[in-house]
Design brief:
Layout lengths: L11 E5 L7 H7 L7 E6 L1 H10 L16 E5 L16 H16 L5 E4 L4 H6 L7 H9 L5 E6 L2 E5 L9 H4 L2 H17 L7 E5 L14 H15 L3 E6 L1 H4 L2 H4 L4 E4 L2 H12 L4 E5 L5 E4 L16 H19 L1
Parallel strand pairs: 1-2, 1-4, 2-3, 4-11, 6-9, 7-8, 7-9
Antiparallel strand pairs: 5-6, 5-10, 10-11
Helix pairs in contact: 1-2, 7-8
């Protein structure tokens, strides 16, 4: 289908559905798109068309061109026809090509932001591509040395000092340099992307009871507390280290803008318990806003199974909000 060109200065946000055998294409087929934004789905249009028909939601898929209003598709061809629920290493290159094209568009100013669907890291690696996740991929493509993963569910924001590490490796990764960089990126991201003039950051301890004065570990005394003091000296409103078992009590969260957890399962279980299915993954430190769903590929539900598009809808809404904040800056 030929594109109808319309002059537009509205935000243009790219979407990558992710693993073609997963539910990412289903989410694109089922969602109603905010008409105040121009959405560009970087994907195989035949895949989207097939998944939409399986879901009983056939729709037109206009081809992307600058100025096209509403939802359009920037075509990237699958390596091999995708079967719902059965990932194929032959399509790993397709997944990466979609990400590369969308990222390039963001870096060159063609797109104002990026929303990513779930990928299957194992299949990408089986195909011979070293891939640890979206966050690392985007940082490399953008040539950014450090980024921060933050999950958002409603008013709760939890950033991670370390991400996908075995628990035994976490203490060695809690370093002064990593804390300094993370607090700087988190503070800057809360200002630039979320519009907080003076963001307040609660920094968790590593050990139970934040080390219990050194009786349950010295990381809080030797590493975390000095990092918080240095951040305060740089003008960052950080407090801590706080005991993780009480830091998320509702009364203690009032007036705070983000919590910095030391490791993945310290902060994210709380966030997902409060907002699973509506959580959003945000990458701070990139030169463009990037959001993502907080769930995986759900291979067993692709094509016909029951799915909840809530997280993708929340990721798109947040991407729009972040793009608008940057536009006003």
């Amino acid at each position: 289908m030929s594109a109808i060109r319309v002059e537009s200065k509205r935000p243009v946000i790219a979407i990558t559905p992710g693993e073609p055998a997963g539910i990412g294409p289903d989410l694109i087929a089922l969602l109603d798109f905010d008409q105040a934004v121009d959405w560009v789905c970087v994907a195989d249009p035949d895949l989207l068309d097939e998944r939409a028909r399986l879901r009983g939601r056939p729709r037109p898929w206009p081809r992307y061109a600058p100025g096209v209003r509403g939802l359009s598709v920037l075509p990237v061809a699958l390596g091999r026809r995708a079967t719902p629920g059965i990932p194929d290493p032959a399509n790993a290159e397709y997944v990466l090509s979609c990400l590369e094209r969308a990222t390039r568009g963001c870096l060159e100013g063609e797109f104002a932001g990026l929303v990513t669907g779930p990928v299957h890291k194992g299949v990408i690696n089986e195909a011979g591509h070293a891939f640890t996740g979206h966050t690392e991929f985007l940082a490399r493509e953008a040539r950014v040395a450090e980024v921060v993963m933050m999950l958002v569910a409603g008013s709760l924001r939890v950033a991670l000092l370390t991400t996908h590490l075995p628990l035994a490796h976490v203490p060695a990764a809690v370093t002064a340099a990593r804390l300094d960089a993370t607090l700087d990126i988190l503070d800057a991201g809360l200002k630039r992307d979320f519009g907080f003039a003076s963001p307040r950051i609660a920094v968790l301890g590593l050990n139970p009871h934040a080390g219990e004065g050194g009786h349950l570990g010295r990381e809080e005394i030797d590493i975390i507390a000095p990092a918080v003091a240095r951040a305060q000296a740089r003008g960052i409103q950080a407090v801590g280290p706080l005991s993780a078992d009480t830091a998320f009590v509702r009364e203690r969260l009032v007036g705070g803008h983000a919590v910095l957890a030391m490791y993945h399962d310290q902060g994210l279980p709380v966030l997902k318990a409060q907002g699973f299915g509506e959580g959003v993954n945000v990458t701070l430190g990139l030169p463009f806003p990037r959001t993502s769903v907080d769930h995986g590929t759900a291979l067993d539900r692709a094509g016909t199974g029951p799915i909840d598009p809530g997280s993708m809808a929340a990721a798109m809404a947040l991407a729009k909000a972040l793009v608008n904040v940057r536009a006003r800056a």
